[in-house]
Amino acid sequence: MSDDQRRRISCGSPAFLGNELAxxxxxxxxxxxxxxxxxxxxxxxxxxxxxxxxxxACSSGTSALHLALLGLELRAGDVVIVPALTYxxxxxxxxxCGGVPEFCDVYADTWTINPSSAAARARQVRESGRxxxxxxxxxxxxxxxxxxxxxAEPGLExxxxxxxxxxxxxxxxxxxxxxxxxNAGRCGSLGDVGxxxxxxxxxxxxxxxxxxxxNSERIAELAELYRGQGARTPGLYHHDVIGYNYRxxxxxxxxxxxxxxxxxxxxxxxxxxxxRYRELLEPHALELLELQVREIPGLHVDPVxxxxxxxxxxxxxxxxxxxxxxxAARKLDxxxxxxxxxxxxxxxxxxxxxxxxxxxxxxxxxxxxxxxxLPLHAGLEEADVDYVCxxxxxxIR
Length: 397
Known about the structure:
By secondary structure, the protein is of the alpha/beta class.
């Protein structure tokens, strides 16, 4: 196939492998397309998959974060420790509640939250006389955080933990040591509450959608209350609190049910393609690029594969000062390959700008400068992966 004939390779595309269309048609034929029976079914499937007592489906991963924080009863002025390297919604949701996100750095190998950095930031906040309520770790690019160490880190032991597992549905194997009880489970079930996202480029999708996951009856009840405009009994028009319209429709939930029923097929397809990436790229590791570490020493973890993130060397060319990451992304785009940069560290982003320098978050800053996400989704073929790797290595050589 010539370059002119080759189809454009998207960074992330949905794949429908099961009963999604049949379930949507069924919902249409029933005539009940808002919040209904498919939502309840999706919640049951999520509870079974993740292993929590409750799953509260909602309109997006961002609304799930907001509902989770409302369920945790975050108060105005309370501080939540957030990794600097994450999508902006993680910190936005804290602001929705009147809370204050304070940022910490991440590990240089797994790229997930560094408990020592989180504890140091918590100490600084307390010394300033402010209250730290919790920690919001992110299972970045499908790699589980070390939740056990986060819970045991001195200075963090009494804080609640809200897991952002938007990019990591189905990942697991980390260890919960709260109360000295060891418990291996899936991401989203290891802290006090977790969230998922079903946006169009996620591992499983409903186009939009999210879920709050918890074993706490109170958190689940509050999430349900705020999800439906603050009414405990829908249809009676009595509202206990000022709520939100964060409901998932039955049409979206019908798609999600089909996705959840075939989640193993999605995971296997992505894992096979990610393994192919690693086979082709690992021989060039350190010399030309770096890959995310997929292990935590001393723990058994089971990552999942969302996108395929790589780190490129720092390299600038005068006079236009184009970074190698930008140059590689441009060349891949010319070759018909869509990519994404890593997230901008939130302390440097306009919406959450803190005025701090890169020295305060050296790992996050370095990852942002060098990070590029390659295409990965269940609709890819191995030949696509081969082509992407060929073009990437040519671009950075």
